[in-house]
Amino acid sequence: MMQNPQVLAALQERLDGLVGSPSGYMESLPKIVKRRVNALKNLQVKCAHIEAKFYEEVHELERKYAAMYQPLFDKRSDIVKGSYEPADDECEWKADEEEELTVSKAIMEEKKDEEKEDPKGIPEFWLTVFKNVDLLSDMLQEHDEPILKHLQDIKVKFSDAGQPMSFTLEFFFEPNEFFTNTLLTKTYKMRSEPDESDPFSFDGPEIMGCTGCQIDWTKGKNVTLKTIKKKQKHKGRGTVRTVTKTVPNDSFFNFFAPPEVPENGELDEDSEAVLAADFEIGHFIRERIVPRAVLYFTGEAIEDDDDDYDEEGEEADDEVRFFFSFLIYIYIYICK
Hints:
Number of strands: 6
InterPro entries: NAP-like_sf, NAP_family
Radius of gyration: 26 Å
Order of helices and strands: HHHHHHHHEEEEEEHHHH
Strand order of the largest sheet: 1-2-3-4
Family: Belongs to the nucleosome assembly protein (NAP) family.
Structural class: alpha+beta
GO cellular component, one term: nucleus
Distance between the termini: 22 Å
Largest sheet: 4 strands, antiparallel
Organism: Denticeps clupeoides
Keywords: Nucleus
Oligomer: single chain
């Protein structure tokens, strides 16, 4: 929530509209008044450091509640994998009228298919989630889909207490023909402290970099590479030969090999664009996909997202109001 790009963008747009442009009044002030303004700016720097501590405590709250959510997510995983069959009372769901009609039709279809083999768990659960979300489906290639059918769970793991702020996305796979890994990880390192060279730019934790993991591909199954053939003509003799080259290939699994951020933090434009998109995807998986996976599987979360944009401007206003309400709630909780 703290780093939801849509919320922060809406908030920043609203604040920018309120601030306007400098009037030039500051330049006209006497030196003695400017001196006092400098004192206010020093106070503002101290406020930024207190705000950084606030976000650190919010991170600790996230860690605390993540531990409370996890047993529910583990049970979800067991149902999806088919290692746990929910009891009748766990499967009861009060549907609205439209859903009841859909359920009735589904029951009729089920009766026709009673003699067919009962599939294990919920087949292609995470693949369907990915395909239903534009942000993720844009990353998927046709050759990724058979692999993602083996994805059994996604978890979010927060850094331990006292450690630098970070979170890790863990992708669990059943044994498959494509790679030997059963776990793929992506770790995002964050910082919640003002930049000494520009302390006034601080507005919450920022991602400083991310690291993926090595995928141990089975020979001939690496979908992140492709083989192409090129014809080369000899300059002197004029003969033509065919050369085979291995080049990068578009794939969701490039997500686990992000560009490295140099120690000086400077990146070229292409790398910056890739990392910016990567950060947005990582936060979306953490904030929306993992907590609400079933709603993205059924499409209900997609419908809710579409409803948010029915009236121009209203979505941004609601998000900003919710953002401030959330901050107030956290503040009250911490102060208890």
